[in-house]
Amino acid sequence: MRELPRVRYADCYSSEASEETVIAVNIGGVKHVLYGDTLNRYPETRLGQLANRATDCPEDLSALCDDYDSSKRELYFDRDPGAFRCIMELYYSGKIHMKRGICPMCFMREMDFWGIDAEYLDDCCTSSLNEVETELAEIAEKVKTILDDMEGDATATRVQKCQVFMWKLMEKPESYLAARVIAIVSFVFILLSSVVMCVGTIPELQVKNAYGQLAEHPTLECIETACIIWFTVEYVLRFISSSNKVRFMFSFMNIVDFLAIMPFYVVLILTHLGTAMMELANVQQAVQALRIMRIARIFKLARHSSGIQTLTYALKSSLKELGMLLMYMGVGIFVFSALGYTLEQSHPETMFTSIPQSFWWAIITMTTVGYGDIYPKTTLGRCNAAVSFLCGVIAIALPIHPIINNFVIFYSKQRVLETAAKHEIELMALRSKEEEQGSPDHGKIAAQRTRASGGNSSGWDSAAVNASHSDTYIPLLEDTATGSKRQPVHKCKDS
């Protein structure tokens, strides 16, 4: 093992320099002995500045640390000792790697304090930091949205305030009790409309119309009309209260809402055009097709169900895995259908008349459905069916786990974002209440620190000392009232 060199500490009250500068630092109760030649590799960092100013007086050194014990020649920092061990890797290896269990944002605050730029992080740590920054940005956006809903715009006119109130009433069930009631009523109407659509197809409940065709029962038609009226009023109110009409019209969920109510009015118009018009076969088929489009109403449930929304976003983020699944299945279907057609040609009663017709057999075999309408009759054909079955199971099973994992991650992330946004709002309300009360506890703590330091509070009141104390929260939004901003980062370069 390498023997530590003998050193002589410098006297801060004399001009005699040390043979080699040695700094003793106490980080959160853990003592470290650091050497000046190591710290001077990055002289612009806080530790590099300490190494260059080791011969200064205690009053000057206290501006860079929380406290300085001149008898022990030891500098004290109220920082995280675990994070400091990672920070020290920069001076030995030129890179910093965050250990497991350390919050990336808290670690960035530690790097800001020690004057180290984020470019010295390893690539693996940078990706994890970017993910956390993205999550914090989403939390900040959610907090900003909630605050905007709570405060509103003081310069808005009465019409604009009414428009905002109507939008919250129709779109944000958590804003008012009436909005929650409207959301529940809308949910009930969606279920009722879906049930009526299904029950109306039962032959025993249908009646013959004037053209001798089976039609829905008049009672069910009345219920259907009531549901459509509710959907129409809801859609019109949401359109009127929307601040961006074009964006509203082309939104996916609003397109679903429009498709849910449009068939009713089209059928109503075609029905009242006259007997001659309704005698046309193509018009009757169009009416039946429009009635089938009523199934789009079930997608309205996604507006009131966070679980369906989470599933939609998870599938959207898993497009690559879904594409991989379709590619595997497509290749397997093509290969096994061609083999099945070729191997079954020798049998006189073959069911494989062509390769495109064999696609259906390959689909139901690889997806393990197996209707039994088409099946091989030769030995080689059955072996091909067994292999296609096994390959289909593997092709479906491989991409399923990433899709499920994306769903779990997205669902957990949504829960964390909602909880974090609520906690941040509670913290902001608590801080504003403390500011209104004048923060008397903070004044008492400052007075106790002044008395403990013998009345000399110049070092403790400096900006560097205030920045050295660890915080228990991460500020997501800048406090515009106090004008507080993030502490600038000192870039460090190799000497």
Automatic annotation (TrEMBL):
Region (Disordered): 431-464
GO MF, any single term: voltage-gated potassium channel activity
InterPro entries: BTB/POZ_dom, Ion_trans_dom, K_chnl_volt-dep_Kv, K_chnl_volt-dep_Kv5/Kv9, KCNF1-like_BTB_POZ, SKP1/BTB/POZ_sf, T1-type_BTB, VG_K_chnl
Membrane topology listed for this record: Multi-pass membrane protein
Compositional bias (Polar residues): 450-464
GO cellular component, one term: voltage-gated potassium channel complex
Biased composition (Basic and acidic residues): 431-444
GO BP field: action potential; protein homooligomerization
Protein's name according to its UniProt entry: Potassium voltage-gated channel subfamily F member 1
Organism: Triplophysa tibetana
